[in-house]
Amino acid sequence: MKSRTRLLTGLIITACALFALLSPAIAQDAPLVRVDLVRVEPLSQTAAVIGRLVARQAGDVSARINGPVERFDVEIGDRVEAGQVLAALNNSYLVAQRDLAKGELAGAQANLKTRKARLTLAKQTLARLERLKKSAAFNQSRFEDARQEVVIAQAEVAQAEAAILSRSADKRAADINLGYATITAPYSGVITRRMTEAGAYVQTGQAVVQMVADRSLEIEADVPFRFVSGLTPGTKVRVALDDSTTHEAWVRAMVPNENPLTRTRAVRFNARFDHSESPLANEQSVTVYVPIGARRDVLTVHKDAVIKRPEGAIVYVADGETAKLQPVDLGVAVGNRLVVERGLKEGQKVVVRGNERLRPGQSIRVDGAS
Fold first, then answer.
1. How far apart are CA 246 and CA 218, in angstroms?
2. Inter-CA distances, 308 with 3, 268, 338, 345, Å
């Protein structure tokens, strides 16, 4: 009996020793996981409204004078900066008009000098006669004529000065028209269409190209009337593009016109598209998530912690060095998190990486960087 007891005790001691030796190996084989805290997040219920990107500046660039198109400097799809040359009209006739106006201005300036010289001469004559008033050689009629000559010369000077103003205006107009022969971009953007070709004759106001300012896009959405009360200038909303990226936007203005058929009002949003993965385009569709309810705080869990099973959603809670399976009831999404209706408490650590192959009660090693 004693020998049997001693044998049993020896087996227990041996087993304990083996367990002690194997424990570090078991711990080292425990999977490395990353965890995230269950935390409270603000929730604002939203409704998806389809909107579109619209350019603040888009349309035709037209000719400002008549003339034949001499050359085009841009093609469809070219990006241009404000002030860049798009096309040029033949300016030979305009150069001649400018030179004519320049010559007429020079003639008017020379005529003014002549008139001023005559005025000076008339004043000198009048001054000499004025000094002879007390002498016997004084002639009253000649004095009166000389005074009239001064008045006439002054009027001629004024007329010459007015002529210079007129010729100067003609010269400026000729310079402006000559400048209009070069058609430039009124703003930065992309050429979307060429409306004519080199050799064609264009009239004043005729479209030469179409362009759109694709870097100053904003969003327009027709928002149902029942949601408008939650939108005021500056209200921030979330928008989603077709490339699945989400961006922040805010209300710029509300257009005070209502569509009686759809009971919607147009709302304009400014947005930042810093991390869009695709080029943006005028009239591109976007989804705007407008607020429909009061903001409230809710308990949330990271979406990567959730494992969906036929019987319901579960998460693994990191309880020390052990993974504990926990069923959860979930609500709506809040960004990359989900609202927790039941099953978790604030501050609990849930496994978000390495949870796919975990088993209930399995030992784990938590990544210290999380």
1. 15
2. 56, 39, 13, 19
- Element of type H or E holding 212: strand 207-212
Distances (CA, A) of 185 to 88, 150, 190, 201: 12, 55, 10, 20
How far apart (Å, rounded) are the C-alpha atoms in residues 245 and 296?
A: 25
Q: How many residues does the chain have?
A: 370
> Which whole number is the average pLDDT over 250-276?
90
Angle between helices 92-131 and 140-180 (to 10 degrees): 160
What secondary structure does DSSP assign to 168-224, as a single string?
A: HHHHHHHHHHHHHTEEE-SSSEEEEEE-S-TT-EE-TT-EEEEEE-TTSEEEEEEEE
Give the tens place of pLDDT for each residue, 324-370.
Answer: 999 999 988 877 889 999 999 999 999 999 998 899 999 999 886 44
Structural tokens at position 186: 């009124």
DSSP string, 28-48: HHSPEEEEEE-EEEEE--EEE
Give residue 367's identity as a one-letter amino acid code.
Answer: D
User: Which of 99, 127, 42, 73 lies closest to 298, judged by CA?
Assistant: 42
pLDDT grade, residue 15 (50/70/90)?
A: very low
Backbone angles phi and psi of 252, in degrees to 5: -95, -45
Domains in the chain, CATH or no CATH each: 46-56+214-285 (2.40.30.170), 91-180 (1.10.287.470)
Query: What pLDDT score does 318 carry?
Result: 93
Q: Comparing C-alpha atoms, which of 42, 40, 44 is closest to residue 299?
A: 40
Give per-residue burial for 94-131: e unless 16+ CB within 10 Å, then b.
beebbeebeebbeebeebbeebbebbeebeebbeebee
302-310 CB contacts, 8 Å cutoff, 24+ apart: 302/36, 302/336, 302/337, 302/338, 302/350, 302/352, 303/333, 303/336, 303/337, 303/338, 304/36, 304/352, 304/353, 304/355, 305/36, 305/350, 305/351, 305/352, 305/355, 306/330, 306/338, 307/355, 307/356
